[in-house]
Amino acid sequence: MASPVRPAENKTSAVLAARRSLLDRGSRSTQIADIIRLCILDGEFLPGARLSEPDICSALGVSRNTLREAFKSLVEERLVVHELNRGVFVRVPTLEDVAELYSCRRIVECAAIRGVDLATANLGALQRALDDADALAAQEDWTGVGNADIDFHKAISALNDSRRLDRLMNDVWNELRLVFHVMGDPHTFHQPYLSRNHAIYDAVSTGAVVVAERMLGEYLADAKEQIFAAYALLVPR
Amino acid sequence: MASPVRPAENKTSAVLAARRSLLDRGSRSTQIADIIRLCILDGEFLPGARLSEPDICSALGVSRNTLREAFKSLVEERLVVHELNRGVFVRVPTLEDVAELYSCRRIVECAAIRGVDLATANLGALQRALDDADALAAQEDWTGVGNADIDFHKAISALNDSRRLDRLMNDVWNELRLVFHVMGDPHTFHQPYLSRNHAIYDAVSTGAVVVAERMLGEYLADAKEQIFAAYALLVPR
DNA sequence: GCATATTTGTCCGTATGTATA
DNA sequence: CTATACATACGGACAAATATG
């Protein structure tokens, strides 16, 4: 049986490993897409902002071809929109988008709860997200609480055990981040829901899946209503 | 009411209209992606096939840059896979992919049935797909029956009234087409399920959504089992 | 195992069309 | 309306990786 760590063949292996961590992630266009994605999610590029090809090319030191390949990926992820002959812009989600985002959450998260098998399911990620949220709430780090809330609900979706649905929900949360960026102060929205996450977890972990699914459905309906009302004041139509 | 053909303002309008029909669909890379997508779905490029840049460039008369942008979209749609420094290949779905495909179908289609509101829902598309399937079955056009089966189940998903989920399921069906292409004779799988589609429709349209959802769940479990068993003989692992 | 040919990854220059100040 | 800036698309170039004989 192979040892988990092979003896180094020569002194370059460390160097190669270091390069791996940078280059193994894929082609340059993939790396560029990763960088721009982070800038958008962090709010450095806000919804509606134009992503100028010449500016970003010179800033990142890549050619237009490479950048345009990166844009294609981001368009498919719905983080940016491409207007023919006008360029690429960070997406500004519509009210309808918000409604659909919460439809997705309801369908996928509720299906995960409903289908949970306590004999095989690993609830550790849920427990961990709740612990994180509690600790961060004690420090009054509400941004951290918001992120832990997201982790908790991503962990719920992950109970479906489907890489494909994980990817869908990742895209959903990314687009919700755009919504939060439009609304300005994002994470205060999550704080009041912390105790409801605890209640949902308790219900699931004790096998009361029907109760848990109902609570989750109400949670999402309330959250959607709150976001929807606030967002309606900020976007046209 | 506007005439379907507006009076020509000048002689160039016809030329412009002709160009529109080609160009209005988006950038050239988008058009190229559309063409390649159709080739893959039609089985002209089979799973595992390599998509050579020089070959396709010369065949379609576009530059490599444009083609590579098209590839990026198709990668994101999961129709092709990109291997660094090796090129682009039509995806060969794994057994696990098949399982996840049917997980998605179960979750999204069952949610659609469960959430249906007969007061507002439009079941016309379901009825139409069933009528088509019946007519085609009478002609023993089993490929047509298969396509009508797909239409019926896409129409079920569409009851969720979410563009986002429609897109997800479109990608799911595209990937299932890859599975069918690997299996050779695809559409005979659909034929035995025709009567079960009728039963599901009857249950939904009479308001028996709980019954309908159970029947749909069993339908999908059976279909998954059949495909899974056949596919396991054809792909490694 | 090696030398060669092919293919990919990336950049640059440029011509053309489109949008905007 | 003109001028400017920008996006679109092409073709050529070269290094690096891969496939082939």
Number of strands of chain A: 3
**What is Rg of chain A?**
21 Å
Strand order, largest beta sheet of chain A: 1-3-2
Largest sheet of chain A: 3 strands, antiparallel
Most extensive interface:
A-B, 29 and 29 residues
- Structure annotation, total helices of chain A: 10
Q: Quickly give the structural class of chain A.
A: mainly alpha
Give the overall form of chain A.
globular
**Low-confidence runs of chain A:** 1-23
Helix coverage percent of chain A: 55-70%
The termini of chain A sit apart by: 64 Å
- Portion in beta strands of chain A: under 5%
Overall pLDDT confidence of chain A: 88
Oligomer: homodimer
Compact description:
With 237 residues, chain A is mainly alpha-helical. At the A-B interface, helix 4, helix 5 and helix 8 of A face helix 4, helix 5 and helix 8 of B. Chain A binds a DNA duplex (21 and 21 nucleotides) through helix 4.
